[in-house]
């Protein structure tokens, strides 16, 4: 009995949060104030019906909203909104029992509609998500308006791919625009790695964090903080486990949470599972 | 969007393994040799379709076999066979959106058939389970025969409830025979508890361990060891966290794994979630 793509996506959510050390984030050994490990477990379990909808061919926006609604049935707040934004199109791209390819994923995002964009906006009504201010001329389309922004979406005839095309500086949106290069690279890193999958995923997380400033850190703090985190991650590649553990504690203490890098890692874990990497 | 009974059962599997300290078992902070935290995450995700079958009214034996088959899609071996043996009838008893009662659970077990017993035996073909030798006159019905025992089951016209009625000394079988008194008591303990659900579950685990010798410890070691573990758990009720943590490390080092107590705790977590205890 092979796990379905939706099951692998849910498992990726759990394996992501279980991977440790993932500096600054909730992991097997660390909680944040009010956001604990078990909130992620409940979020992943709750997201499953939405992920199954994506696998069954439901529209991407509808499947995403359903996944986020289910994820939100816990008291920790936003646990995996960004992960789901990547997982839903990748699960949709896995249909037919084959591991998703970048081409198949791009076909999914290219085919999104204005209705999918509306589903994405509705998803913001289920949970508070930390987002940056919208670009100039996009005030009416601020995602924080939730479904109130839908008339403006329809007026401008914007698909979900269009919306992602206008989210400058967001690595998850960049994945949508560019055909998920980071998720597929992380899957390669995990696939080539050795040892238990969560250990490989933690190393892949640090590697991604060393490459690009994390979006959530830039949003919650500023660009310089995000760049300093990137530099420190780069210094720590290949450092002792102790040094990485210490930095992980330090980031948690300073409320510096590279959550977007965790989203990308989760998507990479999913792709690795789909390629047959075992747990 | 309320979580379904099947989703709550899967979440109970994850919360059980995340609860810590659970002396002697895999928990958020401890792995065993070759049996790691992530194997339980994959086991829980894989069990979901079988749990959903139980919720939809599939025969208990069929749902159980399906849950075990899905659980087994990971490389750690048996992770949650005993949990599922309790969860499947309890999920079946939750049908209709109400939390299961002891009466509803007893109706489910009372209604089991010879086909359900056959499904139970088939489940042993998916994974190696540590079990005691069968009672006198039951050699042909040793569960380790798997489906080869089914003709003997049919010849003697034994339902799954009959099979459980002949498993002396197994606390999970006793739950089946007695209408799940331990699972419901543990749910009460969790419901009355304070703090995060995994902390309450860890305390409920220790409390149950102090009450009755663990079946798996008796099977893998002997009755005296199981009784000594019970006595030590009783001494440690209300002891410092440090003392319990040290004992947890000690039991893991000595390969003393009270897995049946973990099964009962998992069933209690499920019932607590069904009653509306939040994560």
UniProtKB/TrEMBL annotation, chains A, B:
<dbReference type="GO" id="GO:0046917">
    <property type="term" value="F:triphosphoribosyl-dephospho-CoA synthase activity"/>
</dbReference>
<dbReference type="Pfam" id="PF01874">
    <property type="entry name" value="CitG"/>
</dbReference>
<dbReference type="InterPro" id="IPR002736">
    <property type="entry name" value="CitG"/>
</dbReference>
<protein>
    <submittedName>
        <fullName>2-(5''-triphosphoribosyl)-3'-dephosphocoenzyme-A synthase</fullName>
    </submittedName>
</protein>
<dbReference type="GO" id="GO:0005524">
    <property type="term" value="F:ATP binding"/>
</dbReference>
């Amino acid at each position: 009995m092979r796990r379905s793509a939706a099951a692998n996506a849910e498992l990726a959510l759990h394996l992501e949060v279980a991977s440790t050390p993932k500096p600054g984030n909730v992991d097997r050994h660390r909680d944040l104030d009010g956001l604990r490990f078990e909130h992620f477990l409940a979020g992943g379990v709750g997201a499953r019906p939405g992920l199954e909808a994506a696998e069954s061919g439901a529209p991407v926006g509808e499947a995403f909203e359903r996944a986020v609604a289910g994820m939100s049935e816990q008291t920790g707040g936003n646990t995996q909104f960004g992960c789901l934004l990547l997982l839903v199109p990748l699960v949709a791209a896995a249909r037919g029992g084959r591991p998703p390819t970048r081409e198949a994923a791009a076909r999914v995002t290219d085919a999104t509609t204005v209705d999918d964009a509306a589903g994405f906006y509705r998803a913001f009504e289920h949970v508070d998500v930390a987002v940056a201010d919208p670009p100039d001329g996009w005030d009416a389309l601020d995602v924080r308006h939730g479904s109130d922004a839908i008339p403006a979406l329809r007026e401008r005839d914007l698909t979900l791919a269009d919306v992602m095309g206008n989210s400058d500086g967001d690595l998850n949106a960049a994945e949508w625009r560019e055909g998920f290069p980071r998720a597929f690279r992380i899957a390669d890193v995990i696939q080539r790695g050795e040892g238990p999958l969560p250990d490989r995923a933690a190393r892949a997380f640090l590697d991604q964090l060393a490459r690009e400033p994390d979006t959530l850190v830039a949003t919650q703090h500023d660009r310089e903080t995000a760049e300093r985190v990137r530099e420190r991650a780069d210094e720590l590649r290949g450092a002792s486990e102790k040094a990485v553990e210490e930095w992980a504690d330090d980031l948690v203490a300073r409320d510096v949470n590279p959550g977007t890098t965790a989203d990308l890692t989760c998507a990479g874990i999913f792709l690795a599972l789909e390629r047959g990497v075992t747990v």
